[in-house]
Amino acid sequence: MQPEVVRYQVDEQTVALIEVEPPAGFQPAGVGDVAGWVRESAAPVVAAAKELLEEVKTVAPDAVEVKFGVKATGTASWVVAKATAEANFEVTLHWNAAGSDERDTRQGR
């Protein structure tokens, strides 16, 4: 399928035009129709990232980086896109050697 441009409402005054690669069964909206609100469309992706971050916090890193792509599908819900051929999320954890004594003290070690 050819890429399509869909409209997503950002706020009461702003509409974002986003180019998508439509999935199978995609039905384009009518001219001027909005596919969804950005906040609502991105909510499942943001919730997944928050859950991942909460799980990672259990190993008590000094810093966490979570990278992922978001794919607008032209529908009301967006998806987490593959960032590489192998993964949807890239997670990098950092521990500082200098901070390890302080962290051990906070954890009662």
Number of helices: 2
What structural class do you assign from the helix and strand content?
alpha+beta
Biggest sheet architecture: 3 strands, mixed
- The 3D shape can be described as elongated
Strand order of the largest sheet: 2-1-3
Mean pLDDT score, rounded? Answer: 74
What would your notes on this structure say?
This protein has 109 residues and is of the alpha+beta class. The chain is elongated. The chain has 2 helices and 6 strands, in the order βββαβββα.
Keywords:
109 residues; alpha+beta; 3-stranded mixed sheet; 3-stranded antiparallel sheet; 2 helices; 6 strands; elongated
Task: Compile the SSE list and pairings.
Layout: E1 4-9, E2 15-20, E3 36-37, H1 38-57, E4 63-71, E5 79-81, E6 89-94, H2 100-106
Parallel strand pairs: 1-3
Antiparallel strand pairs: 1-2, 4-5, 4-6
Question: What's this, in brief?
Answer:
By secondary structure, the protein is of the alpha+beta class.
